[in-house]
Design goal:
- The protein has about 100 residues and is mainly alpha-helical.
- It has a domain of about 60 residues.
- The protein contains 4 helices and no strands.
- The longest helix has 25 residues.
- The N and C termini lie far apart (about 35 Å).
Length: about 100
């Protein structure tokens, strides 16, 4: 028996996912901060994809921002509750740094 690496295949986002995501970010309460950050991440991923002919970076940006939008109500509720958050862990420490 030979050991084979386990590859977790993720379904790529829909073709219009980035445009829809941008509209959702623009409508969000934090759009003043989030929209420039999304556009910067998208631009960097687009350039990486142009150089590598690989869409993975673009898919990662879409998934990351979909996650941010999906969790933003819970984060807002947590902040509004006044709970102590000084003992938090940086997301990069949990997920790893983005390339």
């Amino acid at each position: 028996m030979s050991a084979q690496p386990v590859h977790h295949h993720q379904t790529p986002p829909a073709p219009g996912a980035a445009a829809q995501l941008r509209r959702q970010i623009a409508e969000h309460d934090a759009s003043a901060r989030w929209l420039p950050a999304f556009e910067r991440a998208w631009s960097n991923a687009l350039e990486e994809s142009r150089q590598t002919f690989d869409l993975t970076a673009l898919h990662e940006v879409v998934r990351e921002w979909q996650g941010r939008l999906a969790t933003s109500p819970a984060v807002a509720a947590f902040i509004a509750s006044g709970c102590e958050d000084t003992d938090g862990i940086a997301l990069e420490d949990v997920l790893g740094a983005r390339r």
